[in-house]
Design goal:
alpha+beta; globular; 286 residues; five-stranded mixed beta sheet
């Protein structure tokens, strides 16, 4: 077994979180500290394998002395600061953000969105029936995954995963301005005519279900998708010798999708087209 070299230990940073002293390793964010302290801070655009983009602004907290609310996902913990996570100002900001998101996009497949809307008493319907919505039809132009941008909140995680942070394919980017901004391929070409290599790493990081396996999309449309009935088994991909870990999601003895553990030192949640989509041969029963 190859030994993994250990770096020098990180110094601890002490600050006040909701009137209690906390100590976290230097470099950790306020969100890291909140999670370590068992505080449930909502967030949509934060990903544990990506650099924060500060896009959704649902995780904002109040830092004493700061003029504006701070995004907990990217604000580093600093010695001596005082942070409050549940002030009226922070709760109101989260409420408004959730109202704006839920009034313009479909959050029906966003984990915990309904729970947060209830917790913060957000009322997306208050903007009325004429509120602008994305209202896009799903793009089904290949057999592997679907792009349902009616559910997209423009968190940019898919762009980062496809671009310089992981895959370096740069098949997708943000096109348009203002409310017309969309995630798009070059010249809005079909995915089959783009630079996409179908690694599916964009699906792995999508927080709302805007990107999903074709199998999941079809099962949801048929009303047969049931995560509570699914089992998850982590194994090693057999296609090559890299040793990528696969987590097989199985429902009624059928693999319905494949993910990868984010804490795996080989993949960090990323796979290639064979690892993520090449499972059909397992189910070719004679």
């Amino acid at each position: 077994m190859t030994a993994i070299p250990l770096g020098p230990p990180r110094r601890l940073v002490e600050f006040t979180l909701d009137d209690a002293p906390v100590r976290v390793p230097e470099g950790d964010t306020i969100l890291d500290a909140c999670r370590a302290a068992g505080k449930d801070i909502p967030t949509l655009c934060q990903g544990d394998t990506l650099t924060p983009k500060n896009a959704c602004r649902v995780c904002v907290v109040e830092v004493e002395g700061a003029r504006t609310l701070a995004p907990a996902c990217s604000r580093r913990a600093e010695p001596g600061i005082t942070v409050r996570t549940d002030t009226e100002r922070a709760r109101h900001s989260r409420k408004v953000v959730l109202e704006l998101l839920a009034s313009s996009t479909d959050l029906s497949t966003t984990p915990r969105a309904a729970e947060w809307i209830k917790e913060y008493e957000a009322k997306p319907a208050r903007f009325g029936p004429d509120a602008a919505t994305v209202n896009e039809e799903p793009k089904v132009d290949n057999d592997l995954y679907v792009r349902d941008y009616d559910k997209c909140i423009l968190c940019y995680k898919c762009v980062d995963a496809c671009g310089e942070q992981w895959q370096n394919t740069f098949a997708i980017a943000v096109a348009g301005r203002g409310f017309d901004a969309r995630i798009s391929t070059e010249h809005d070409a079909p995915l089959t005519d783009s630079a996409c290599v179908y690694c599916g790493n964009c699906i792995e990081v999508c927080p709302t279900g805007a990107l999903s396996f074709k199998s999941e999309f079809d099962m949801r449309a048929a009303g047969t998708w049931d995560e509570s009935a699914q089992t998850e088994t982590t194994t090693v991909c057999a296609y090559c010798g890299v040793g990528c870990n696969l987590t097989l999601h199985v429902q009624e003895n059928e693999i319905v999708k494949v993910t990868s553990p984010h804490d795996n030192p080989v993949t960090h949640g990323n796979l290639c087209i064979k690892g993520r989509f090449g499972y059909q041969h397992v189910q070719n029963r004679i």
